[in-house]
Amino acid sequence: MQRKGTTPVTLDLFADETPQPAIDEQIGPQSFVFRGFALPFVEQLLPALEAILTQAPFRNMVTPGGYTMSVALSSCGEFGWTTDSQGYKYTRTDPQTGQSWPEMPEVFLALARAAAEAAGFADFIPDACLINRYIPGAKMSLHQDKDERGYQWPVVSVSLGIPAMFLFGGHARSDATRRVPLFHGDVVVWGGEDRLRYHGVMPIKQAEHPQLGEQRINFTFRKAR
Ligand code: MD3
Ligand code: FE
After folding, report:
1. Statement: residue 20 has pLDDT above 80
2. Residue 78: is it exposed, middle or buried by C-beta count within 10 angstroms (0-12/13-18/19+)?
3. Which position among 38, 95, 116, 157 has the lowest Cβ density within 10 Å, counted as fewest Cβ atoms?
């Protein structure tokens, strides 16, 4: 699409900013993007998140490879995901406080369950919710989520705050990736044959969200055990 009085060169400069059509789509045989699915829950999600963070504040964990993650993490639910120099694992307690992870709020459970149901996974009861906080520049390298005991349940992901460009890969790290923009309120469900696909998040661009400021929060609901 060419605008009047502009050259293709100018358009290329803004190619990244072209608003994507934010429509629901199926991005894999068993993966679905539900645009704005979380919006009706946000008013209840944010105060519940605040309460969780007073008990289990965001922290930048170190991977076994000795890299400090640019994404800050917290968790709620029966199990929390952690990493340290020893490896990745789910724990019942927050290693930073020795206390149990905060309980999973009812509104979190209700949202995860409804989204899983919409993707064809009835009766999803997650026992872990990993909470990721991205500030501009933070990214998540391509990886698989495989620290859970089984893969029969989907992962449900909820995006809040400033946008992200999600990378959706294949079953080998070297497979081509597809870029999927994710916005405030979007929910993605990954199950079945898509459950072990490589995925990641490109460095977050500077932006400001009216409710969340200069950050992106992502919840990933899983069944760890
Ligand atoms: C595709 N988080 O915490 S959520 C993670 O936006 C993680 O914070 C990203 O990857 C984020 O592990 C992406 C989307 C996601 C989560 C799990 C998946 C995509 C997935 C599992 C299998 C395939
Ligand atoms: Fe992941």
Report:
1. no
2. middle
3. 95
Residue 89: CB atoms within 10 Å: 14
Q: How far, rounded to the nearest angstrom, does the alpha carbon of residue 187 sit from its chain's CA centroid?
A: 9
The protein residue with its alpha carbon nearest to ligand 1, atom 6, reads 218
Tokens 């504040």 label which residue? Answer: 57
Neighbours of 139 (CB within 10 A): 16
Q: How many C-beta atoms lie closer than 10 Å to residue 69's C-beta?
A: 17
User: 176 alpha carbon to ligand 2 midpoint, in Å?
Assistant: 17
Lowest model confidence (mean pLDDT) among 19-33, 75-89, 160-174: 19-33
Q: How far, CA to CA in Å, does 9 sit from each of 2, 17, 20, 129?
A: 11, 14, 20, 44
- Predicted confidence at residue 22, as pLDDT, reads 78
What residue ranges define each of the domains in the chain, with the CATH number in brackets?
A: 25-222 (2.60.120.590)
Q: What is the pTM of this model?
A: 0.92
State how far the Cα of 27 lies from the Cα of 204, in Å rounded to an integer. 21
Q: What is the pLDDT of residues 186-212, one digit of tens each?
A: 999 999 999 999 999 999 999 999 999
Indicate if the pLDDT at residue 14 is higher than 70: no
